[in-house]
Specification:
The chain is mainly alpha-helical. It has 37 helices and 7 strands. A 5-stranded parallel beta sheet has the order 4-3-5-6-7. Strands 1-2 form a two-stranded antiparallel sheet. Helix 33 runs parallel beside helix 35.
């Protein structure tokens, strides 16, 4: 170091003298990154030997207006791949301010910024090391100056120091006193509040009390709702109760002396409301650049708190689980709270496994918990799941009901609605499908309300592309198309309210209704009333559009008609987007992935076939599914079940569809054989509904078929046509007798 400074002391005057004349001008390499060794015209008589000397030289060269030289020394430091300790030693010697200044000097980038990034990363890694924090903590018991320096450094570390600090606070053998660490927490400020609340999940009552004491000092009124549980729950010990009440008193009144004035009145309801808000994803989090939030948890194995980077959805669901369980501790036998807690657990589990995976089963799993919670709790859990926007939890509850419930679950009335029946008209297609399957699992024996919805839902599941269409109701078709284009959805259009209702109630692909205020045939009020009165269309979102002056006049209608929205018509797409987007986002249902679509289609085909096999068409008329079955029968893996279902549809259209499969040489041979057998039974059951041309084609296929199995099936089919006596004689005479008699 001394040699470097002496060299610079001698050469700096010379450097300034010659640099003005341009005699000493460094030559940078072609890419501007600097060379591994300094240029030949370097003003240094002796090159720096250590990384610290190189960094000091880089600072000087930058100050002297020689950025190419400064960058060359910075690059040598970077190429050395220094350890964390070496990087931090450079920072301590040169100073953070100087390193930041270099990083902000554009002519020294990118090397200067890379060095700063490396030092920052090393600092972060080192700050998490227990030995570093332990070393700082030792100074808490030193002189006032040493104590302040230690506190200042720990304040700088902030949340990164909390795992080790919590371990010290929980350790009865720690060198630092509990009061010293609690005082330290009070100096570190609100940044550490998330870690402190996570530490309250410990089983150590002394640690809880100390944490609560710190929260009482640095907490604010918004934190109180999370402290009430510790102040009054019977699950906590008296010492914890007292510490929590003192903390609340400090926050509310600025003194610990008013703890006795506090009351537990309303605590349970506050926890219920908080849990429902978390399920609805209402609380907002400070989101990182990668979309995650910093969420702290208690790690029992290490005996301290640990930060996790999780999504805001996951964070809210975990809070919902915690708060609902806390509410349950106040009223363990309250069915509503039991159902709320079960809903939160199921919501978190469905989010954990993802949309394409089934929930795990077995001891200790949330699904098995649902199975053992009883039908009343499951019914209430379904209601809560739908009210809080947790459709996948609702699907799981419906599945559990189908396994542990009885057929009386299908008994429904206006006064006592069945959740299974109500779910058939839920706003989420997945919930509707789960309800339809649950009802079929119960194997009903007598008619019930909304039974026709089961087949409609299964039929939609056969061919649902996950996109859906918008249906426009407008006498002016061009105007309607202009508005529909703003939804970016495929569109169909009709001119009257009555036509719109008929289309929407008989199709499964309509996901949004848009209607002009001037409906014809049916007025707007009549159109809305019919849409909302029919279970098939009750949940469909409706956008009403018209001129500006009608918005106020229709405000009461919009308010009284669920799930409707008014849009002022304009040809400007940007303005339409502004008005439509919030409403459309609120209606958005995540589209099914290809895997889920295939899985749902397979299940739909299987259940439609099951209805046919069970001879339950008197309960579930399969006729409305004919069109969907006609499309799905062309999918090889669905064909068998679709043919079975078509075999129970007593219509000419069903026979035509089956005949097309029998005669198609593009179809799989096994499907053609099975279709032939289904057609034979269909004709025996419902009569021959085919025209003469189809019958002739079937006979030609029988006579020309070479595959033995299909030829035999076609023979059965032709035989079921009940040929007349001359035709029988003709066929008998055409039969070729083997030339050799039987010899056995």
């Amino acid at each position: 170091m001394y040699r470097l400074w002496m060299t610079l002391f001698v050469l700096i005057p010379l450097f300034f003298a010659v640099s003005e004349s341009g005699l000493l001008r460094a030559q940078s390499d072609g890419d501007g990154q600097g060379n591994q060794t300094p240029p030949e015209d370097s003003p240094l008589a002796v090159e720096p030997q250590s990384n610290l000397e190189r960094l000091e030289t880089a600072v000087l060269m930058a100050d002297f207006g020689r950025p190419e030289l400064a960058k060359s020394y910075l690059k040598q430091i970077l190429d050395a791949n220094l350890s964390d300790d070496e990087l931090l030693e450079l920072r301590d010697e040169i100073g953070s301010v100087e390193i930041v200044r270099l990083a902000r000097t554009e002519s020294l980038q990118p090397e200067s910024q890379q060095l700063l990034d490396q030092i920052a990363a090393a600092s972060g890694r080192q700050s998490m090391k227990p030995e570093r924090i332990d070393k700082v903590l030792q100074d808490l018991g030193g002189s006032p100056r040493e104590r302040e320096i230690a506190i200042s450094e720990l304040q700088g570390l902030g949340l990164r120091a909390m795992p080790r600090l919590i371990q010290h606070l929980a350790d009865p053998n720690t060198v630092q006193t509990r009061d010293q660490i609690v005082y330290l927490f009070s100096r570190m400020g609100r940044e550490i509040v998330p870690a402190l609340f996570a530490a309250l999940n410990t089983e150590n009552p002394l640690l809880k009390s100390a944490i609560l004491g710190s929260l009482g000092v640095i907490g604010e009124e918004e934190d109180i709702k999370r402290l009430w549980y510790y102040a009054y729950s019977e699950a906590e010990q008296p010492a914890v109760h007292q510490a929590a009440r003192i903390a609340i008193s400090r926050i509310l009144y600025g003194t610990p002396d008013k703890a006795a004035m506090l009351s537990s009145f309303g605590v349970k309801q506050d926890l219920i409301r908080a849990s429902e808000a978390y399920l609805k994803q209402q609380p907002n989090w400070n989101v990182n650049e990668d979309g995650t939030v910093d969420f702290w948890i208690w790690d029992a194995q290490s005996g301290t708190v640990v930060p996790l980077a999780i999504s805001p959805v996951a964070a809210n669901l975990r809070r919902a689980v915690v708060t609902s369980r806390q509410a349950l501790s106040f009223s363990p036998e309250d069915p509503h709270i039991q159902a709320l807690y079960l809903t939160a657990v199921l919501a978190e589990e469905t989010y954990r496994v993802g949309p394409e995976e089934a929930l795990p089963t077995g001891a200790g799993t949330p699904f098995n918990l649902a199975l053992t919670s009883g039908v009343p709790v499951l019914e209430k859990s379904y209601e809560i799941a739908m009210e809080t926007g947790q459709p996948r939890a609702a699907e799981t509850v419906l599945r559990a009901l189908s396994l542990v419930g009885e057929r009386n679950l299908l008994n429904s009335s206006l006064e006592d609605p069945s959740p299974l029946i109500a779910a058939l008209n839920a706003p989420h297609s997945g919930v509707q499908f789960a309800a339809a399957v649950a009802i079929l699992e119960l194997n009903p024996r007598k008619p019930f309300r909304q039974a026709s919805r089961v087949v409609e839902i299964l039929a939609r599941g056969l061919n649902d592309d996950g996109v859906g269409k918008v249906l426009m109701i407008d006498p002016n078709v061009d105007r309607g198309r202009t508005l529909a284009a703003a939804t970016r959805m495929p569109q169909d259009s009709v001119r009257t309210g009555k036509e719109g209702f008929i289309e929407a109630s008989t199709r499964s692909d309509i996901k949004l209704i848009m209607t002009h205020i001037n409906c014809i045939d049916w007025s707007l009020s009549q159109t809305l009333a019919n849409f909302r009165a029919d279970a098939r269309t009750a949940a469909l979102p409706i956008v009403i559009y018209g001129p500006t002056f009608m918005e106020d006049e229709l405000a009461l209608t919009i308010q009284r008609t669920p799930n409707t929205h008014y849009v002022i018509f304009t040809p400007k797409s940007t303005e339409l987007d502004r008005q439509l987007e919030p409403f459309l986002v609120s209606q958005a249902e995540a589209p099914l992935s290809p895997v889920l679509r295939r899985r749902r289609a397979a299940a739909s085909a299987d259940w439609l076939a099951t209805i046919a096999r069970r001879n339950q068409t008197h309960l579930f008329d399969l006729t409305p599914a004919t069109a969907s079955l006609s499309q799905a029968v062309n999918v090889p893996e669905l064909a068998g079940n679709c043919l079975t279902a078509l075999g129970a549809v007593p219509t000419r259209e069903a026979q035509d569809i089956i005949v097309n499969v029998v005669l198609s040489r593009m179809e799989d041979l096994s499907n053609r054989v099975y279709a032939t057998r289904v057609l034979s039974r269909h004709m025996q059951e419902y009569g021959v509904l085919l025209d003469d041309r189809d019958i002739a084609d079937l006979k030609d296929a029988w006579e020309g078929e070479t595959d033995p199995e299909l030829q035999t099936a076609l023979a059965i089919l032709v035989g079921s046509l009940q040929p007349n006596s001359p035709k029988v004689t003709e066929r008998l005479e055409r039969h070729v007798i083997p030339p050799v008699p039987a010899q056995n």
